[in-house]
Automatic annotation (TrEMBL):
PROSITE patterns: FAD_PCMH (PS51387). Gene3D superfamilies: 3.30.465.10, 3.30.70.2190, 3.30.70.2740, Uridine Diphospho-n-acetylenolpyruvylglucosamine Reductase, domain 2, Vanillyl-alcohol Oxidase, Chain A, domain 4. Pfam families: FAD-oxidase_C, FAD_binding_4. GO terms for molecular function: (R)-2-hydroxyglutarate dehydrogenase activity; FAD binding. Its EC number is 1.1.99.39. SUPFAM superfamilies: FAD-binding/transporter-associated domain-like, FAD-linked oxidases, C-terminal domain. It catalyses: (R)-malate + A = oxaloacetate + AH2. This is D-2-hydroxyglutarate dehydrogenase, mitochondrial. The keyword Flavoprotein applies. It comes from Ciona intestinalis. Its cofactor is FAD.
Amino acid sequence: LTAETYNVKRGNYSTANASDLDAFRNIVGDNNVVTEASELQGNNVDWIKTVRGQSTVLLKPKTTTEVSRILKHCNERKLAVCPQGGNTGLVGGSVPVFDEIILSTQRMNEVISVDPFSGVMVCQAGCILEKANQDLLEHDLIVPLDLGAKGSCHLGGNISTNAGGLRLLRYGSLRGSVLGVEAVLADGTVLDCLSKLRKDNTGYDIKQLMIGSEGTLGFVTAVSILCPQKPKSVNVVFLGVDKFEDLLLLLRKAKQDLGEILSAVEFVDSDCIGLVGKHLKLVNPIGEYEFYMLIETSGSNSQHDEEKLSSFVEDIITSQLAKDGTIATDFNKMQSIWKLRESVAEALTHDGYTFKYDVSLPAHVMYDMVHDTRKHLKGLYNSVVGYGHLGDGNLHLNVTCPEYNKTIASAIEPFVYEWTAKHNGSISAEHGLGFKKRNYISYTKSKESINFMMKIKQMFDPNMILNPYKTLPGNID
Ligand code: FAD
Ligand code: MLT
Ligand code: ZN
């Protein structure tokens, strides 16, 4: 889909010309100014292949100074810019809408320092999450964030979306573990908030504005993250469950019985398991049930952790809260169970055009949304599935259909947003608003909050060159 489908008009920006390209080549070198259409194809299309822009320029700076010079030039010339990390975003925020210049962190991939005593890692924004995590293992540390796109997403992108993911239950949101951010503002000013301090109450915390602002307020160039110790003992259980209410009882019992070692609680429904089996040939290690729950523990004493976990599993099987289950203590088995959960997003891409929703809801109504959506759509779909971060009250509702069409689009939206607002939820728990959801912001945020967001945008980026058509509702482009 393109801007036309969404009925968006190009803002009053300049178009990059030969002298702009010369200026960029002068800053980053010839090889790092890409103008070849075939090379730009991947950068113009999002991960789920639902939105496509038409940028003709991709810039690959290596340093903060280069980013600063590029943005100063773009601001003076009123050239619009789309910041891009690993391009794994799921709301169309990471790709241009028209001909915005793509500014990529691809080459900004240096780890600057790791302090094994404080656990603070400082690195450039283009470090890939999985690679950063592997590097940290040498220091017995891990990144406090994990998600299915770890092999491609960049830490700068993670911070710009305030990504949640699979470890949030244990380590909290990036708003707590990100200690510092360095960002370049639209006019080229370098905002150095790259603190390594755990505590710093000297006035307003400007870095929080960069976290989750999806490239609309500044370009993140470096980050400082508080990283936890690598757990000495990790175990995973995969359970088959008949009813969603039982998942909630299991969640409560897991919190009570596993306490401090509980590190993840995820769920998928039976249709998700069907899809990862059908499209990716992944094998479900237990029988067939309506729901599946993945519980992970991370602790420091394997004997203690395994005893706790075995007794928990024995209890829930005896009481029939879970109908079946398997415990994984070895790395390969744990990986294959995690893969079943993490691959749902990919399996859906093979099932047709995907309408993707990511909502926060009170846990007791979470799965009602999936039932109600199925009823409401009266078979207009290939699949309607529910999965997500059960322990965080975050449901991923996805609808696939043979291809995009307006009838199904208008049957789904605003239905899902109205449903969410009616149940006091958030229309974006972790993916952000990007291009696709920005005009639905008022289902979750008050008019006053939105007005303040706009004032902040105007202060940081008066020419509106940073990621236009994203996050803020349409009427200010
Ligand atoms: P991009 O997709 O490149 O960009 C995302 C947004 O950030 C865009 O608006 C972009 O303009 C902006 N941006 C990127 N880099 C910068 C920068 N340096 N400065 C300023 N702005 C920038 N998300 C979750 O929260 N939890 C999950 O569990 C999760 N799982 C996923 C699983 C899969 C298989 C996939 C494909 C995606 C998943 N996501 C998840 C969504 C996505 O991976 C995250 O949003 C991720 O944080 C994006 O990082 P990225 O580097 O790919 O950013
Ligand atoms: C996940 O939890 O799997 C991701 O957020 C991706 C998705 O929503 O599909
Ligand atoms: Zn998720």
